Structures
1.
Amino acid sequence: MAKDPAILAHQEWLGYVQPSGLVVSIPALIEARAYVNRNISPDHQRFLSALPSDRDGEPVPEIANFPEFARSVFGWAPEDLYGAPGAPALPETLEAPLPAYGETLRPTYALHDFQPADPTREWILLIEVLPTGTDLDIVAVMETMGVSLTRLQSGRFVALCPFHADTNPSFSVTPGKGLWQCFGCGVGGTAITFVKRRLGVSSHVEAVAAIRELGLWPEADDDIRKTT
Ligand SMILES: [Zn+2]
C-alpha cells in the first residue's frame, strides 16, 4: 500500500528525535533558524593560522603564545587575561597554598568576567601553561595508582576496572588522547578525573596536588622535551 509522502517525511524526521518529552518538527526548527551551522570552516582556518608551522608548512599542534592565541582565535580582550602582558597581575587570591604538600598552586593566566553576575564568582577560567612536550603521562599516573595496564598492539591499554567488580578487562586507556573509559560501568575521562575518582575527591586542585606528589606533573622547569 502506497503511503502518503507527507506521512513518510513525517516518519523520517521522527526517527531523528530523542524521546525527551518535547517534539518539534524539523521544518519548524529550520523556519526558526534553530539549527546547527555546520559551516565551521572560517573558524577552523582562524584556529590553524594561529598555530606555528613546521618546515613543510604543516601546522604544529602547539600554542606558543597563549595570550596572542586567545586574542586571535577566541577574541578575548588582552586586558581580560590577567597575568598576560598589558593586563593586570594575577591576584594572590587565585593562589591555592597546599601546606601538606609544601607548595602553592597558581595559574599562569586567569580570565576575568568583566561584568560578573555574582561578585564572588568573578573568574571564568584559570589557565596553566605547560612547556611543549610535557604531556601528563596518563599511563604512569594510573600504574602508580595501582592499575595494572596491558598494552595492546593498537597502542591502547586495557585493565580490570578499579571502579567496579570487573572480571574481563573493560577499562580502556588511549594515551595519545589522554583519555580513559570503562565499557563495563561507563565511567571515563581524563587523568585528572581518574585521580579524583580514585581518591574520592571532588577538587581539581587536590587531584593536581596528588599527581604532583607522585612526581608526575609536568613541571615548567623540566627539561624533558620531545625531540620530534
Ligand atoms: Zn568500570
2.
Amino acid sequence: MPTLTIDNRQVTVSPGTKVIDAAEKLGIMIPRFCFHPALGSVGACRVCAVTILEGPIKGVQMSCMLDTMDDMVVSTTHTDAVDFRRDVIEWLMANHPHDCPVCDEGGHCLLQDMTVSGGHGIRKFPGTKRTYTDQYLGPLIQHEMNRCIQCYRCTRFYREITGYEDLGVMGIGARVYFGRFQDGTLESPFAGNLTDLCPTGVFTDKPSRYTGRRWDYERFPSVCLSCSLGCIIRLPAPGTGRSSGRKPATARRSTATLSAIGDAMGLPMHRPRTGRVGPLWMENRSPWRTRCPMRRCG
Ligand code: SF4
Ligand code: SF4
Ligand code: FES
C-alpha cells in the first residue's frame, strides 16, 4: 500500500491507484478532461499536470497516468504545474469558439470552469481559428465540432463501453474529427450519455436546445418508467431553480425534462439508461416496446 504526500498531506492508497485518484481521496480535485473514473486514463488532454518533488520520478507529470509510489511528494500548486496547466488551456482556447453565451453546455462546462479558474482571459494567438462542419446525428443529439478539445471520452465510451462502431475519430494531427463516417442517427441506445460525458458542448441535447440553463432547475429523485428495469433517475423540475418564474425555465418542455434525466457523472455508464430519452427513443426504435397494457394468460 503506497503512502505518499500530496500538498503536504499524507495518504495511503491501494497499489495501482493513480495520483489523480489519490488526490481526490484527500479532497483535492486535480483538473481533468480526458480522465473519467469509468473510462480510465488515456493521457490525451495534459491538463492534470502536477509537480513531483520527491520520489523515483520527478518534475511535471500527468497525474492520471502516474501510479502512486511510496515516498512520493506531489504538489498540485507548484508554479511549474500551474503554468503548464494554464498553457494547455491557452492552446485549447486558441481554436475554441467564443460560444459560451449561446452554448447549452454553459454553466456546467468543464472547459469553461478550467479556463476561468486557470486565469486565462486573453487569446494571444492572432491566427484564424480552425473550423469544422457539423453533422446531423439524429433528432436527439446536437453536434458542434468546433468546441472539441480532443479528449477522446466520446469514442472511448461509445466504442469500448457500448460496443457500437458508428461513431469514431477520423483525421489526423490538428484535424481530428469526432463523428460518424456520414451524417445519420447515432445507432447506440446509450448515445444520450454523450451529452453528459463530453466535457464541452460538442454533444448537447437537441430537444432542449436554447430553452434553459442548468441552474434553472431543481432535481428530484424518481424512478424511470420507460422500461421494466426501473432505473433510479433524477428528474429536473423546471421553474423551481434560481431563476424560477422566468419564462425560459418554464418554457422548457417535457422532452427537455426527459433528456436531462440522470447524470452520467453520477451513474455507472454501463446502465442502459434508455430512459434518458424515454418514450421518444423507445417508440421510434424498439420493435419490442410494449405499446399497450398486456396480461399473461395461462
Ligand atoms: S463548450 Fe464550454 S467553453 Fe466552449 S463555448 Fe460551450 S460553454 Fe463555452
Ligand atoms: S467530442 Fe467531446 S468527448 Fe469527444 S473528444 Fe471532443 S471534447 Fe472530448
Ligand atoms: S486528465 Fe490526465 S491527461 Fe487528461
